[in-house]
Amino acid sequence: MISQIMGFLFSPQSEWAKVRQKNQYSGGVLYILIMASLPAIAWYYGVTETGWQVADGEIVKLTAASAMQIVSLFYLAMVLSVFCIGYFVHWMASSYGSNSSIAKGITLAGYCATPLFITGLVGFYPILWLDMLIAVFAIGHALYLLFKGIPIVMDIPQEQGFLFASAILAVCLVILMAMMGGTVMMWELGVTPVFID
């Protein structure tokens, strides 16, 4: 698993070729479940033990119960988002002349999210401006993986792969907006941060 992570971070072209060659997509769900736990664990520790600071203000921490509730929903949102994106990869595949399965789509989406999962480890020591900067680079690399991986894994020409990946990117943006709306609804339902005094 570690060699696979390194492959997607440093040599994605050859890693995608290996994924296509093996043609085994059943392990994608387990990969996502494990990788999504990394940012959840990191942020739980970060917001309860390390805390964060805005400008020169006091260090802010959450209670363990509040953090557990929020991080659990964060984990669920990550997993469901990747599954949803994977489903849409499968759903759109025939429009672009590719054969797919739901497992193949979910695996592709999970591997594309690898930089985001790894970047979630910055949560151990939350410095918000630095974390946001690192997240921008992770999003860029995830998009690079998407645009590189779609044509290889789906076995379609580069031009069609570009269009396919662009359509998936649009789906990702819709899911992001839905998550933002879901966050507001959760806050209205009482899932709000409780700070340590």
- The structure class reads mainly alpha
**In terms of quaternary structure, what is this?**
single chain
Number of domains: 1
Strand content: under 5%
The amount of helix comes to over 70%
Euclidean distance between termini CA atoms = 41 Å
Which residue ranges are poorly predicted, with pLDDT under 50 across at least 5 consecutive positions? none
Q: Overview of this structure, please?
A:
By secondary structure, this protein is mainly α. The protein has one domain. It is 75% helix and 2% strand. The protein has eight helices and two strands. The protein has a two-stranded antiparallel sheet with strand order 1-2. Strand 1 and strand 2 form a beta hairpin. Helix 1 crosses helix 2, helix 4 crosses helix 5 and helix 4 packs antiparallel against helix 8. The protein is elongated. The termini are far apart.
Topology:
Elements: H1 2-10, H2 12-22, H3 28-50, E1 52-53, E2 59-60, H4 64-93, H5 102-112, H6 114-119, H7 128-154, H8 158-188
Antiparallel strand pairs: 1-2
Helix pairs in contact: 1-2, 2-7, 3-4, 3-5, 4-5, 4-8, 5-7, 7-8
Report a brief summary of the structure.
This protein has 197 residues and is mainly α. It is built from eight helices and two strands, in the order H-H-H-E-E-H-H-H-H-H.
